[in-house]
Design a protein that fits this description.
Structural class: alpha+beta
Radius of gyration: 17 Å
Number of domains: 1
Strand content: 5-15%
Number of strands: 3
Helix content: 10-25%
Distance between the termini: 24 Å
Number of helices: 8
Length: 169
């Protein structure tokens, strides 16, 4: 028997996205901060272009919103994820590593997700988060985002979990 089959089934495996309560829904966020990056979209093709320009409310060290509950007071167009939109995969701008996106596609959470690892820092240690890789949009004009295009937020790195410390021979 594996560890996975010995304990209770984790909520993200036992429930569909539309069955999650608010606490479970919020827990799915791995706090990578990638969705808080400003993105450009080609209106003709729908292609998303990532920037390293973060929302002014994103703390670049913790990768958390500094005013999550009141964010719409400061950033009116901040999107609250809607389960139907996630399931229909309308949000093409969600990063490929996003837990909501993965689960909507029938995939599992990655090893570095805090719900899997039990450690909120694995998302940073794995290099998934935006920690110390971004600049704030406070001083960047909207027409200056093209000067800050990057690929890494839209990438889905094939990261393997670190080897477990085994018994020494």
């Amino acid at each position: 028997m594996t560890e996975e089959t010995t304990g209770p089934i984790p909520f993200w495996k036992a429930k569909r996205l539309d069955e999650l309560d608010d606490r479970e829904w919020e827990a799915l966020c791995d706090r990578c901060g990638r969705c808080c990056l400003n993105k450009l979209e080609d209106e003709e093709t729908g292609e998303i272009y990532w920037t390293n320009v973060a929302c002014r409310l994103l703390d670049p060290t913790t990768c958390r919103c500094s005013s999550y509950e009141n964010r719409h007071d400061f950033v009116p167009d901040c999107v609250r994820l809607d389960v139907e939109e996630v399931v229909s995969q309308t949000y093409t701008w969600l990063p490929p590593t996003c837990a909501y996106r993965l689960l909507a596609r029938g995939e599992d959470l990655r090893w570095w997700h805090p719900l899997v690892s039990g450690d909120p820092d694995t998302v940073h240690a794995a290099g998934i988060s935006v920690r110390n890789r971004v600049i704030s949009d406070e001083n960047i004009p909207a027409d200056g985002y093209e000067d800050h295009l990057v690929d890494w937020p839209g990438e889905d790195p094939d990261l393997r979990p670190p080897p477990r410390e085994g018994k020494k021979r």
